[in-house]
């Protein structure tokens, strides 16, 4: 007879208790980047909706942006860092393989002996991390989880690449997830398709790069560093066809109808994708739809918390409103869930 092993004591419900963001200081309007890619403000606005984006300066690191966003999330939730027992950080642009940024962020926030780790799920990273956090809280394994989505995509950006230079940007968003009397985070609908790796990826891995550097040195030539590349049309097509089902699955699993929604916060990849999803889901006109991409560009794992904050800050949505979140991107991975929107700091 095996020795009985106790399980954690579950709680009934989890919710997002507070939200904070960090937007880099430097605003980069379209006219600052168009010459390098032979483009125009009008083309970028028409094709993507983007008017400007934020690019991080040297001191605005993955860790410092995460810490700033987390401080506001903790303040909005009215809890101390010491009350957090798990940190999950989602990113695809950390330029070191270890240690995890989550562990460093936890220590910078004054936490001790806190479980902390990073996850990589491209632009779906925040929603993946949110699902994990909700499950940890409901299972009783964690009491309060800090979830962070953060990117410094400019570290991977080829500013001469017409397909990516105008899209990607930097920023951070954080939420606190904890127990609640009523459910605030619905079951996740998620998946991935590794056969579509070439649609968005780092164009060469570091082993390949080092081999190229050695060969170039021997030949007296130069080699090009790795960059993020995207087949925009392929991703666009996938987003506007496949993702309707992901949204409907997330709604069904939460028992919420599209007409019950107060807000829709999809990943901010392209305004045309947002509009297409609103159309196919037949969202009523009074549903507030996040359009943070216009001023923030595509911040990958940070885009959903940043877009939630923008909706709340503008007054278009309010804490407690029912919102559908949908992250999607490299992997091709996606994750969506229905949530009750959290408070932000004044
Ligand atoms: O966050 C992860 C998920 N990412 C996404 O969901 C991104 C999805 N994809 C997109 O957002 C869009 O595909 C883009 C915004 C990246 C591109 O828009 P598009 O409508 O798919 O443009 P395209 O690549 O089909 O190019 C259309 C035309 C081409 O010219 P012709 O062949 O029609 O004469 C391109 O050469 O636009 C040209 N073009 C540009 N022109 C000015 C391509 N890039 C540029 C540019 N500036 N930067």
From TrEMBL:
Name of the protein in its database record: Beta-ketoacyl-[acyl-carrier-protein] synthase III
One Pfam family hit: ACP_syn_III
MF-aspect GO terms: 3-oxoacyl-[acyl-carrier-protein] synthase activity; beta-ketoacyl-acyl-carrier-protein synthase III activity
Swiss-Prot/TrEMBL GO biological process terms: fatty acid biosynthetic process
A GO cellular component entry from the record: cytoplasm
Catalytic machinery residues: 123, 267, 298
Record family assignment: Belongs to the thiolase-like superfamily. FabH family.
Alphabetical UniProt keywords: Acyltransferase, Cytoplasm, Fatty acid biosynthesis, Fatty acid metabolism, Lipid biosynthesis, Lipid metabolism, Multifunctional enzyme, Transferase
InterPro entries linked: ACP_syn_III_C, ACP_syn_III_N, FabH, Thiolase-like
Top-rank EC class of the record's enzyme: transferase
Reaction catalysed by this enzyme: malonyl-[ACP] + acetyl-CoA + H(+) = 3-oxobutanoyl-[ACP] + CO2 + CoA
PANTHER family for the chain: 3-OXOACYL-[ACYL-CARRIER-PROTEIN] SYNTHASE, BETA-KETOACYL-[ACYL-CARRIER-PROTEIN] SYNTHASE III, CHLOROPLASTIC
Pathway terms, separated by semicolons: Lipid metabolism; fatty acid biosynthesis
Main location: cytoplasm
Record note on quaternary structure: Homodimer.
Function: Catalyzes the condensation reaction of fatty acid synthesis by the addition to an acyl acceptor of two carbons from malonyl-ACP. Catalyzes the first condensation reaction which initiates fatty acid synthesis and may therefore play a role in governing the total rate of fatty acid production. Possesses both acetoacetyl-ACP synthase and acetyl transacylase activities. Its substrate specificity determines the biosynthesis of branched-chain and/or straight-chain of fatty acids.
Domain characteristics, as noted in the entry: The last Arg residue of the ACP-binding site is essential for the weak association between ACP/AcpP and FabH.
Every Beta-ketoacyl-[acyl-carrier-protein] synthase III N-terminal domain range: 117-194
Signal peptide: none
Entry's EC annotation: 2.3.1.180
Region (ACP-binding): 268-272
Domain Beta-ketoacyl-[acyl-carrier-protein] synthase III C-terminal: start-end pairs: 251-339
């Amino acid at each position: 007879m095996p020795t009985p092993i106790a399980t954690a004591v579950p709680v009934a419900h989890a919710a997002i208790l507070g939200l904070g963001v960090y937007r880099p200081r430097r605003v980069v309007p379209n006219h600052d980047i168009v010459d390098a890619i032979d483009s125009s403000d009008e083309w970028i606005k028409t094709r993507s909706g983007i008017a400007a984006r934020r690019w991080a300066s040297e001191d605005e690191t993955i860790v410092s942006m995460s810490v700033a966003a987390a401080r506001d999330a903790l303040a909005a939730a009215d809890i101390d860092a010491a009350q957090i027992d798990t940190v999950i950080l989602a990113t695809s642009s950390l330029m070191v393989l270890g240690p995890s940024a989550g562990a460093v962020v936890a220590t910078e926030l004054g936490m001790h002996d806190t479980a902390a780790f990073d996850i990589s799920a491209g632009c779906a990273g925040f929603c993946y991390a949110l699902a994990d956090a909700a499950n940890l809280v409901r299972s009783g394994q964690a009491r309060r989880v800090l979830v962070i989505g953060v990117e410094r995509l400019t570290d991977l950006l080829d500013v001469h690449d017409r397909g990516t230079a105008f899209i990607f940007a930097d920023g951070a968003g954080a939420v606190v997830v904890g127990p609640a009397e009523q459910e605030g985070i619905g079951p996740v609908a998620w998946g991935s398709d590794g056969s579509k790796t070439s649609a968005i990826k780092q164009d060469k891995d570091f082993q390949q790069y080092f081999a190229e550097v050695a060969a170039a040195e021997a030949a007296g030539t130069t080699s090009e560093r790795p960059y993020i590349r995207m087949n925009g049309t392929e991703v666009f097509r996938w987003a506007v066809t496949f993702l309707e089902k992901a949204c409907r699955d997330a709604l069904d699993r939460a028992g919420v109808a599209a007409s019950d929604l107060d807000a829709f916060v999809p990943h901010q990849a392209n305004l045309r994708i947002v509009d297409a999803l609103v159309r196919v889901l037949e969202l009523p006109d009074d549903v507030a739809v996040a359009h943070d991409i216009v001023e923030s560009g595509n911040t990958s794992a940070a885009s959903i918390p940043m877009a939630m904050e923008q909706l709340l800050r503008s007054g278009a949505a309010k804490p407690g409103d029912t919102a559908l979140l949908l992250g999607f991107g490299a992997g091709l991975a996606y994750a969506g869930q229905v949530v009750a929107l959290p408070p932000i700091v004044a």
